[in-house]
Write a structure and sequence with these properties.
This protein is of the alpha/beta class. The chain has a single domain, classed as 3-Layer(aba) Sandwich (Glutaredoxin), CATH 3.40.30. The protein contains 6 helices and 7 strands; from the N terminus they run αββαβαβαβαββα. The N and C termini lie far apart (50 Å).
Amino acid sequence: MKNCSVILFFLFSLPLFAQEQTAGRHAPDFYLDDMEGNIVALGDITGKGPVIISFWATWCKPCIEELGELQKLYEEFKKANVSLLAISTDSERSLAKVKPFVKSRGYAFTVLLDTNSDVARKYYVQTIPYTLVLNAEGSIVYSHTGYKKGDEVEIRRVVEHLLTR
């Protein structure tokens, strides 16, 4: 029974461990294709203002809910140089659904494609949605796994704090 408790502790602590590994760390740079095939580098976006990064997939219901709320935040803060990168972790098999999905929702933020989850691994993404906020210097100041209604309030608070510094 003791071994079982240790295993359960490890399994439930893993997402927390991943978050602790990212907070305060400089965000690893990456290069990903957007939906039009253009290469986007994180390094080209940082330095202008806060960056929200959300790892998601078309089949993930909580991701879809969160993206709707992130769209609202993006509309509110884009004039303040806040960027939003929604990184799809859809595999090659479901990749064809991404562009129609995004267009049908009218998302105005940048959607990137991480079909092999290479970038997700760089960020210790264990489950999706996984959301991060970077300061203008590119350091991770907030990370969160999962989504429930109201989580966007904390993201808003973090972004507002970054904008008033």
